[in-house]
Protein 1
Amino acid sequence: MRRGTARAVDRTVLLFSTLCLAGNTYHVPSQAFWDRVLGQRSYVLIVLLGLVTVFGALAPVEAWTLRSRIERSVTIRNQILSSFGRLLSISKGVRPPLPPSDPGLHVWKRRRTLVHPIIGILSRVATYRLGTAPVNRPFSPSKGVGVVGLCWKRNQEVGVDVQSLAIKLTSEEEYRVFREKNGGDAVMNLSWNDFDRLKHRGAVFASPIRNGRNGFVGCISVDASHGYQELDGEELRAQMSLLALVIGQSGFEAT
């Protein structure tokens, strides 16, 4: 249950109990009405008074929801750290070796904005990396743009050897010709300027996060400066899929 819903339940019970007590005190709608409702059941007033006290002071439904969310957050955080640990272990097989601070794990959430009110964009809500370098560059792609955008467009796992593209496409003209020949998806539907700005992450993988109705709500991405061939395997994809499943079932709050 969402925290806002739980709060609404607490306030509804409190309001109903208070109105009932006030109605009985001031004979609204009438004394005859309350005589029929209460009859020999005077304990009802005690129950209502107890509800006002408990729900007014303790907000039990919201408190229970918050406690459940904390427990769920701990579970999700543990899974994220476990998956990130496996990523670091897998990255040890990359040649030449990756610095420990190089591999990154990112969580992206689909958000609607004023510019994209219907389809929305992908917003990075969390990054896991050992250290502060490399620094994340601003990137909020729409559907089909970038590796995470392709993951959204196809609603399936996507991996791109960006390093190979960067070696092959060294100028804007080469990029334009390649894109015209192979289509926008072949270059992740990026402009030349964006491609040139983001190509330092040479190996990028993404896995969709789906809600209970199997709808796309975000994705998990993993990137490194190089090592696509070594990283591209069942172990990495399994870790990403497991993490995407956990976040999809529990939400993004703990990321």
Protein 2
Amino acid sequence: MRVDEWMSSIRSSRKELPFDDWMVLVATPIQSAEVGLRLTQGNVSFELGHGKRYAIRDAARGAQTFRCIIDGREPLVAFIDKRGRRGPWLTVGSLFTVEQILSMRELPE
């Protein structure tokens, strides 16, 4: 649905934003998700907030940071590389390992 909206936006506008940049502008959590979403994976749960940055750590990949946006009730995350560039938006699903979830902490803005 969002891809169709983005394509329509490109056709009707003089500004051509890449999809991932456009998503930041249009993603809006529904009222019940405005303060964040509590997600459960296995026996652990974690909360992601719209527009927040997080740090995680695991033995295989080391330290990573990501930003979260919530579109409706769908949390999306984009990992941030060492140069501060945001990667593509990914759905959460089974994206995080238990080790990463246990290490997750919100970063100050």
Protein 3
Amino acid sequence: MPHRLRQTRQATASHSEAQEWFNRAARFDDQTKAVWRSFHRLTHCRNRALVCDLYPYVWDIRGVVCLLNSYVKWLALGRVPQTVSTYVQGTFTWFSKGWKEAFLGGDQEPWVFRGGLTAELQRLLPLESVNDLFIWKPPDVPSSKIFTIRPYLPADKDAVYDICRKTCDDGLDGTDVFPELPDLIADKLIGGFLTLSPELSFVVEDEDGICGYGLAALDAKQYLKKLEMAWLPELCSKYPEPGKSDMLSPAEEIISSLHSYKPSIPDALHKLHPSVIKLSCLATVSDFSVPKRLLACVMAALKSNGSFGAYCEVNVGDKNMLEFYGKLGFLEVPVTGTSVEELLYLGRTF
């Protein structure tokens, strides 16, 4: 067979397989929406005793199905390396090659996979050691409110910046702190992620719009180098350094810090937590399963790219954010010899 003809047939087969994948992803998205509709109908059922009995189970199933759909939507963007299979091989599931046939053939006992359908779906994600993120407490009062997690798009920037402003003061609204420069705090805290690492960024939406975000960079060292070489010079140009004064405004203090900032990460931290993460949700998101699912999405994307741990930076005095990340399983990583004493490093592996 001529080489060119062989290449053409291989390309055609590859295109056919890719199209089949996208068709299946679209069908799964339709099935996810069907689960949403069923969940919505259940919450409005007149038989409230039935609702109370079924709600926790359906709520749990809806959450894990939505989480899987979020991961599939991220995969559809093609931001996965060819070596992904070496990173995500883990627990066998009903869907693993050969297991379904063995089960149906009677070679396996019915209880070979524990936890029921919910646990089976959870095992489809490349997250074998983050079971705490799948422990969700249903709302005390049945609610039809649905939060959707999806990959970040460039059109989301203004909304994500707004979330950052409304959560920058230790999780509280800091909009009034920088009225004359509304983008300053977001430029400093998350602008680098959205510009240099958008492929690992997710947003949370409800019926009112975007209400949270989860951002990450795969290799923190490389990200900080890019931050220093590309993003910080742009910010310094955008925000000229203020003159010397003993009475700087909060905005001027931040601008001054931009001109003197030298990003770095301790080697001991990078060794166990090579990726960096930043999450935030509006105070209106009272369901804590939302940030858990958001973090699971980010970690699944990082794991698919070969990472096994991540850290975040929190100011020493930010008690709300320390509690927030603590509930998500982050622990303080003792680091010596850092130049920024007011920062704490929190990390977790996955």
